[in-house]
Design a protein that fits this description.
The chain is an alpha/beta fold and 307 residues long. The protein has helices spanning 2-28, 32-35, 47-62, 75-83, 94-101, 110-122, 144-150, 155-163, 174-178, 183-190, 204-212, 227-230, 254-259, 262-271, 276-287, 293-303, and strands spanning 38-44, 66-73, 89-93, 126-128, 138-143, 170-172, 199-201, 218-222, 233-235, 248-253. It is globular and about 60 Å long.
Length: 307
């Protein structure tokens, strides 16, 4: 009886081991997609980036991926997270990578800028997928009525009046204040300077509040922000072409794309749907109409046949 029991235990152990090995083999035979189902999506700390992260997460979840999403990063912090392998993908702007991450200061066409950042970042294991038609460049804006009263349509006009003694209160976010393509080099390029007491460093959303309430005369805005039109702001012409092109594209860790090439196709379908008017409209739904980001993203994806 003891020998029979031992044989039974050996047969049971063998069957359990076989089941485990069979299950592991079946999992591996499902290929790269099964091994890459959990995707870590990142985003920066302003509405457009939160929306892009939500759009991406919902789209990938609909394709069967398990997704974790984290937003609220500054640009440098998010880039660092991706280089460390803690974020798999997010949406980046060519100008940011060109100037801030790769220290390229020469003026390039949008096409050449994309090629340059694509090649430079590839050496770091980061792949740029084809861009959308969004160019979310920085801009300076004023209340339209105020700009018209002062006779200002360009940054050169603003600089001339500042050099002649007119006072302007500026609202900008901290990132622009310290960036290598930000406030200090802008002032050098246009040969003027805001007085330090007249510079308010605030959250991006607060810039629009200060402009609306007359507590700032000039504000740093984004080209695709829906509040520009809603508040009837005049975007000043960058007549010296200081700001580079900020074409928007998904950037993905090479390790993830190697495991799951289909990911590029999913992200490409989303990128094809995005241009400046579309992005501005989505941003306005959140910032002006106060609709939840999740609902805005779901509605858009369904309207474009992506869900």
């Amino acid at each position: 009886m003891i020998l029979a029991g031992a044989r039974h235990r050996r047969r049971s152990t063998g069957r359990c081991l076989f089941a485990v090995l069979w299950g592991l083999a079946a999992f591996l035979l499902q290929g790269p997609a099964a091994l890459a189902q959990t995707v870590r999506v990142g985003g920066k700390d302003f509405t457009e980036q939160v929306l892009l992260a939500e759009l991406t997460s919902q789209l990938l979840q609909a394709k069967g991926y398990s997704v974790s999403t984290q937003t609220g990063f500054a640009s440098a912090g998010l880039r660092r997270e991706q280089e460390m392998g803690l974020v798999d993908l997010y949406w980046e702007y060519t100008g940011t990578s060109l100037v801030t991450y790769n220290n390229v200061t020469e003026r390039l066409s949008p096409e050449d800028a994309f090629k340059r950042v694509r090649d430079l970042d590839a050496s770091k294991g980061i792949i740029w997928l084809p861009t959308s038609r969004v160019n979310n460049t920085y801009a300076l804006a004023m209340r339209r009525a105020d700009a018209q009263t002062r006779g200002i349509v360009s940054i050169s006009d603003l600089a001339t009046k500042a050099r002649n003694g007119q006072r302007f209160r500026l609202a900008c976010n901290t990132e622009f204040f310290i960036r290598s393509d930000g406030l200090m080099p802008l002032q050098r390029a246009y040969r003027f300077e805001f007085s330090q007491p007249d510079i308010a460093r605030v959250e991006t959303s607060a810039v629009y509040d200060l402009l609306r309430d007359g507590q700032a005369d000039v504000g740093l805005v984004f080209a695709t922000d829906g509040r520009v039109a809603a508040l009837d702001l005049l975007v000043l012409q960058d007549d010296r072409k200081f700001f580079p092109n900020y074409s928007l594209a998904p950037v993905v860790r090479k390790e993830l794309l190697d495991r799951d090439p289909a990911l590029a196709s999913h992200l490409g379908r989303l990128a094809e749907q995005l241009d400046n008017p579309t992005m501005a409209g989505l941003n306005a739904e959140v910032d002006v109409q106060n609709n939840p980001v999740t609902e805005v993203a779901t509605s858009f994806l369904k309207s474009r046949g992506l869900l």
